[in-house]
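Page 47, continued from p. 46.
Same chain as before, 238 aa.
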Amino acid sequence: MFIGHFAVALAARRAAPRASLGWFFAASQLPDLLWPLLVLADVERVRIAPGDTAVTPLAFDHYPWSHSLLSAVLLGVGFAALYRTRHRERRGAALVALLVVSHWVLDWITHRPDMPLMPGSDVRVGLGLWQSVPWTLVVETAMFAAGAWLYATATVARGRKGRLIFWSLVGFLLLTELANVLSPPPPNVTAVAVGGLATWLLVAWAAWADRHRVDVADATTDARVAPARHETGAARAS
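Result:
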C-alpha cells in the first residue's frame, strides 16, 4: 500500500491537533523509510519480478526486520518514545505508535502472503489486494480522499501558501500512486532503494504543509488565518 498509509496519517492528525503531520507521515511509513537502507546494506532482499502481483513488479523475499509484525510493534513503541522526548503529549505518542503498527496491517491487506510475523519465523501472511489493480486503486483512493478531507476540514490554511503547499502534496501523492501502478519495472534494485529513500522528502513536505495550517479551533485567534478568510469572502462576493 502507498497512499493508504498517508491516508491514516492525515486522518490521525485530526485527533491530535498539537502534533505535526510530519511526525504522522513518518510514523505511517516508518517500515518503508528504513527498508531501503536495509536493502542497500544487503540485510533485506527484494527482486524485480514483473507479474509477482498485478500492482507491483517487486518480490519481497526477505524483510523481517523492517516489515514483520513484531518489528512494527517494537518500532512503534520506540518511535512513540522518541516523540515523547520531543513533545510532552500522550495522545500524539499513542497515535504515533498506532500508525507504525498500521503500516503492517495495511501491507497485510495488500501484499500476497509475504508478510512475516517476526524475524526467524517462516510464517508469511497477506490477503493479496495487489492482485487486482482496479480494486487497489479504488480502496487506496477512497482511503486517501477520506483522510485528506478529514485533515482539510480540521485545519485552516494560513493564507494562499498554506492551501498551495497542502493541496500540491495531495496532488503529488495521487499522481505518484498512478505512476507506481502504470510505470514500467525499475531497472535494478538499487534504483528501487534510492527511490524509497525519497519518501523522506514527503515527510518534510507534510511537516512544511502543517506549519502553514492551523487547527480550526484555534483559527479565530491566529492572525495569519484572517487574510485567507478575507480572500475567500471577497471571492464569493465577487
